[in-house]
Write a structure and sequence with these properties.
Layout: H1 15-22, E1 30-33, E2 40-44, H2 49-68, H3 70-87, H4 89-100, H5 109-125, E3 131-135, E4 139-147, E5 150-154, H6 160-173, E6 177-181, H7 187-197, E7 206-208, H8 213-221, E8 227-231, H9 234-244, E9 250-254, E10 259-263, H10 269-281, E11 291-297, H11 301-314, H12 333-348, E12 352-355, E13 371-374, H13 381-384, E14 391-397, H14 400-408, E15 412-413, E16 415-419, H15 423-430, E17 437-440, E18 455-456, E19 459-460, H16 465-471, E20 473-481
Parallel strand pairs: 5-6, 5-8, 6-7, 8-9, 10-11, 10-16, 11-14, 13-14, 16-17
Antiparallel strand pairs: 1-2, 3-4, 4-20, 9-19, 12-13, 15-18
Length: 485
């Protein structure tokens, strides 16, 4: 749709109306199930390589005119797109809750939709000025940033709308057009958001294409795609790199993490327990930069384990549309099986389940109780591998240097955190962590102006803020005569 479509649209649209906009014709497409009830929500169109080629061609044709609008007009349209998301926030949140499983309340569905609007507004307001490199009698040289062209965006199922906006917002702001391929597990909510944004954006500036993973690989490999943004597993990230090699597309990859937290000696367990818990269990643990393993000093180990277990046992879990719940199901059966298998393996290797440690079939097929596992250590799969679910292993340590060495031994490095009753002490230790971001007395919090990205096998490239705008543009040096003496 183009901007003219707004005149025929009455907002707000509820989740049923949003679904009607994007789902396949009756009898066609692929069924999408409610993560909590396993009932059919709707049917998503199954598009093909030919459909992807057509979308890329349309985006390529639309890109020069979009870039020519200039930063001011593009930014104004991004603000209008944010307004459209806000106007339909409740319908989008309800569709997201059903498809992904996350509850409406807490740091979940309504929070995610609000973040989409906030990130778009920040993208619109962020200033990227030319950088003067040399300005003297002999030379004036500036570094400027121009649109790359067509951006291929491939988004995941855990924060499907928000991470899509992390890809879409800066790309559009810098004058690129975007073809986005949402996860096959959560396509409807992303397509609905794109549909709402396209009520105000020019035609073909933003195009959503749904289909199997193979069309995502085709998007990355397409010769008319100048930039690829991907958030997902390290395994798939490597495939994206291989697919993009032929066209030398620029890449931003936010890949898997196994984030470590370290609680320093003498820390007040009660003071940090709530923040520790949500650092690990936000979105029911299905977050790349959630805390996946927690190293705790002997002096406070029992207190921290007890405080976390008490919270885990009391936090309401259930259907996301119930206003009381703040934890939901695993989004899909594959992930449920991974989580359950890792807990069983930890038990077999001496892990002590303090709370949880089992499915919750009375809530639904994909629910797994919030779980704290104590008395495990490195070498156990639950510690060494990313569980991506509502389970936290707590590892005892005695020597601080050893704890940092063990935390850094992983081949991933997305985020990490250091916890102490003395924040200044924690700050002194923070730079010892091998990760793209280190938080002090919190974990996982993101800000649209603070760059975010991983190291090692957690990927490369920065998102957010000025650095995020640069990452979806191509640099150009403009060099000319200097000032005359």
């Amino acid at each position: 749709m183009s901007a003219s479509a707004t005149t025929a649209t009455t907002y707000p649209l509820d989740d049923s109306a949003l679904l009607a906009r994007v789902q396949a014709t009756e009898g066609e497409g692929r069924e999408i199930l409610d993560a909590a009830t396993r009932e059919v929500i709707g049917r998503v169109p199954v598009q093909t390589v030919a459909d992807m080629d057509a979308a890329i061609a349309r985006a390529k044709a639309a890109q020069p005119a979009w870039e020519a609008l200039g930063h001011e007009e593009r930014s104004a349209l991004l603000v209008k797109a944010a307004d459209a998301i806000d106007a339909n926030a409740e319908g989008l949140a309800r569709l997201l809750s059903r498809e992904q499983g996350k509850p409406l309340n807490g740091p979940n569905a309504r929070f995610e939709v609000g973040a989409c609007s906030a990130w778009l507004r920040t993208n619109a307001a962020t200033v990227l000025e030319p950088q003067v490199l040399v300005d003297d009698e002999t030379l004036h040289a500036e570094l400027v940033y121009k649109a790359a062209g067509v951006v291929g965006a491939i988004s995941p199922w855990n924060w499907p709308m928000m991470i899509s906006i992390w890809q879409i917002g800066p790309s559009l702001r810098m004058g690129n057009t975007v073809v986005i391929k949402p996860s096959s597990n959560t396509p409807l909510s992303v397509l609905a958001m794109v549909s709402v944004m396209n009520d105000v954006l020019p035609a073909d500036v933003l195009i959503g294409v749904s289909g199997p993973g193979s069309i995502g690989g085709h998007l990355a490999a397409h010769p008319d795609v100048a930039k690829v943004m991907f958030t997902g597993s390290t395994e798939v990230g490597r495939k994206i790199i291989e697919a993009s090699a032929g066209n030398l597309a620029r890449l931003t990859l936010e890949l898997g993490g196994n984030d470590a937290g370290i609680v320093l000696p003498g820390t007040d367990a009660a003071a940090i327990a709530q923040d520790l818990f949500w650092g690990a269990f936000i979105n029911t643990g299905q977050t790349c930069a959630a805390m996946k393993r927690l190293y705790v000093h002997d002096s406070v180990y029992d207190d921290v384990v007890g405080a976390l277990a008490e919270i885990a046992a009391s936090v309401p879990m259930g259907n996301g549309l119930d206003e009381d719940n703040v934890l939901g199901p695993l989004q899909n059966k594959d992930q449920f099986d991974i989580v359950a298998g890792l807990v069983e393996d930890a038990k077999a290797h001496g892990g002590r389940v303090v709370t949880g440690g089992e499915a919750a079939p009375e809530l639904g097929e994909l629910f797994y109780r919030a779980t704290i596992v104590a008395d495990v250590t490195d070498g156990v799969a639950l510690v060494d591998e990313e569980q991506f679910g509502p389970v936290l292993p707590v590892i005892r340590y005695s020597d601080v240097d050893d704890a940092f060495a063990r935390a850094n031994a992983a081949d991933v490095g997305l985020g990490a955190s250091v916890w102490s009753s003395d924040p200044a002490e924690a700050a002194q230790y923070a730079t010892r962590m091998q990760s793209g971001t280190v938080w002090i007395n919190s974990h996982g919090g993101l800000h649209p102006m603070v760059p975010f990205g991983g190291i090692k096998s957690s990927g490369y490239g920065m998102e957010f803020g000025v650095e995020g705008l640069k990452s979806v543009a191509v640099p150009q040096v403009v060099s000319g005569p200097g000032r005359k003496a």
